[in-house]
Amino acid sequence: MTNKLAFSDLRERAIELRLAGKSLREIKQITGVTSNSRLGEALRDVPPPPWTRRSRAKDHLREKARELRALGYTYLEIASELDVSKSSVSLWTRDMPRVGRISYAEIRERNSAGCSASWAAESARREVGRRAITDTAASRIGSLTDREILIGGAVAYWCEGTKNKPYRRPDNRVIFVNSDPGLICFFLRFLAIAGIDRDRISCHVAIHESADVAGAEQFWREVTGLPERQFGNPQLKRHNPKTVRKNTGDGYHGCLVVNVRSGLVLYRQIEGWARAAMK
């Protein structure tokens, strides 16, 4: 019915309701107007009521938002600080000038710091998960029998030890090289189970000449428990300044070369054990 009102009558009634403090929704309900554009045309040049110029949110949040904006905070920072929406912050502070605007470099730095903090937390969470998987797997192994040690040691040697080659005359030497202290200790345990006396074992360190050679030798003596007399001269790798090396620092101890003297029989035994395990 009221949609058919003459525009002059609609404008008069809409202005009367607007000045009485009614909202646009309320005016539409009272007048029956369904077209926003028609109602907007009817209220052209009519200022909105004072209450529409401010947020309905709590006054202390609005004032705090304006304080933060004056200090140069962005909309997102204010919204995060006050736990409100960005649109609310915009409504409360859009009449304020931009103060202390940060540069793109500062924005990138903030974003980078945020990503770093996020990944640090995520890395810690993932590490807990990885550790749980590792601990569960380790618990399934338990104590090893002598047979299992022979199998594991032979396979480890076939991966990391010196082997006969078709293009090289067989020498049947037993030489095991690795940088992992745990694997070195396991190989020594394997040698003991295989009946090799510790006096038949000799070692030397293979390491870059620019590293702490003396410190590495002391480290491997402590790992193996072998006396100094069973350690030979270190094998030094010449330093190349153009090579970017990552295995540096206090945690770098080079590789330990473990040699079993008179190892002909042992080599053939290892070959047999490894082949049986991999058959």
Instruction: Briefly note the structural class of the backbone.
Output: alpha+beta
Give the C-alpha Rg. Answer: 40 Å
The largest beta-sheet arranges its strands as: 1-4-2-3
Please tell me the total number of domains.
3
Characterize the largest beta sheet: strand count, sense, and whether it forms a barrel. Answer: 4 strands, mixed
Number of helices: 11
How many angstroms does the end-to-end distance come to?
94 Å
Q: How would you sum up the global shape? A: rod-shaped
Number of strands: 4
Oligomer: single chain
Low-confidence region ranges = none
Which percent range describes the beta-strand content? Answer: 5-15%
Helical amount: 40-55%
Q: Output mean pLDDT.
A: 85
Give the ordered list of helices and strands.
HHHHHHHHEHEHEEH
Draw up the topology in text.
Layout: H1 7-19, H2 24-31, H3 36-42, H4 59-70, H5 75-82, H6 86-93, H7 104-141, H8 146-160, E1 174-178, H9 181-193, E2 201-208, H10 213-224, E3 235-237, E4 255-260, H11 264-278
Parallel strand pairs: 2-3
Antiparallel strand pairs: 1-4, 2-4
Helix pairs in contact: 4-5, 5-6, 8-9, 8-11
Brief overview, please?
The chain is of the alpha+beta class and 279 residues long. It is built from eleven helices and four strands, in the order ααααααααβαβαββα.
Describe this structure in words.
Helix 4 packs antiparallel against helix 5, helix 8 packs across helix 9 (181-193) and helix 8 crosses helix 11. The radius of gyration is 40 Å and the shape is rod-shaped. The longest helix is centred in the middle third of the chain and has 38 residues, at 104-141. A 4-stranded mixed beta sheet has the order 1-4-2-3. The chain folds into 3 domains: 2-93, no CATH class; 102-142; 146-278, no CATH class. It has 11 helices and 4 strands; from the N terminus they run ααααααααβαβαββα. It has 279 residues and is an alpha+beta fold.
